[in-house]
């Protein structure tokens, strides 16, 4: 049995009523209402010329990837630390609690550290692109070097220099590896 609305006045018939269609006067076919653009839309024309992410997208991407990666690695370390902390008299509930607590402790800590490194790297790389007006490997390596040095600057100049060298070397290897994969591995 289907529902049929009744008129409030029982003496009035349904013959004098019609359903309201809000689109009847538009005279536009329904297919053209939902045709969305297939190419990305840009606010400024110069953004459409560059074949790279904007500084904001870059910042969000590297910070997010850094935090997620750090949180996963930290959760793995927390899992091992939680299992090491088991005592023979612990119940199953206490063991699960130990694991969850240590995963949360190390996951958040490592995630925050890696997210800050990603934030620094994205800012420096975008700054290098803006200053040099070109996007190449040098920008990435200098940004890695600067990120490592700035991240460990509070530990002293020697630690900053070592961390900067490690950061520049790591980014150089990553960028070179990406270029090698693009060139020699068919997709």
TrEMBL record:
Keywords: Membrane, Transmembrane, Transmembrane helix
UniProt feature coiled coil, ranges: none
GO cellular component: a single term: membrane
Domain of life of the native organism: Eukaryota
Transmembrane segments: none
Keyword Membrane: yes
A Gene Ontology molecular function term of the record: transmembrane transporter activity
Subcellular location: Membrane
UniProt cross-references to InterPro entries, sorted A to Z: Tim23-like (IPR045238)
Primary subcellular site in the record, as a coarse category: membrane
Membrane topology reported for the UniProt record: Multi-pass membrane protein
Protein name, entry field: Mitochondrial inner membrane translocase subunit Tim17/Tim22/Tim23/peroxisomal protein PMP24
Organism: Helianthus annuus (Common sunflower)
């Amino acid at each position: 049995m289907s529902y049929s609305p009744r008129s409030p006045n029982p003496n009035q018939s349904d013959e004098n009523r019609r359903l309201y269609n809000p689109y009847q006067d538009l005279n536009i076919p329904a297919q053209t209402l939902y045709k969305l653009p297939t190419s990305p839309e840009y606010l400024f024309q110069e953004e459409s010329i560059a074949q790279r992410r904007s500084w904001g997208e870059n910042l969000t991407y590297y910070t997010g990837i850094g935090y997620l990666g750090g949180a996963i690695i930290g959760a793995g370390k927390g899992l091992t630390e939680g299992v090491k902390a088991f005592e023979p008299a612990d119940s199953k509930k206490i063991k699960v609690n130990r694991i969850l607590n240590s995963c949360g402790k190390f996951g958040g800590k490592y995630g925050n550290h890696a997210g800050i490194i990603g934030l620094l790297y994205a800012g420096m790389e975008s700054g290098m692109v803006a200053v040099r007006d070109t996007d190449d490997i040098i920008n990435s390596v200098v940004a890695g070097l600067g990120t490592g040095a700035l991240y460990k600057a509070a530990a002293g100049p020697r630690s900053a220099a070592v961390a900067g060298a490690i950061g520049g070397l790591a980014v150089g290897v990553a960028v070179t590896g990406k270029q090698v994969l693009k060139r020699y591995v068919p997709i």
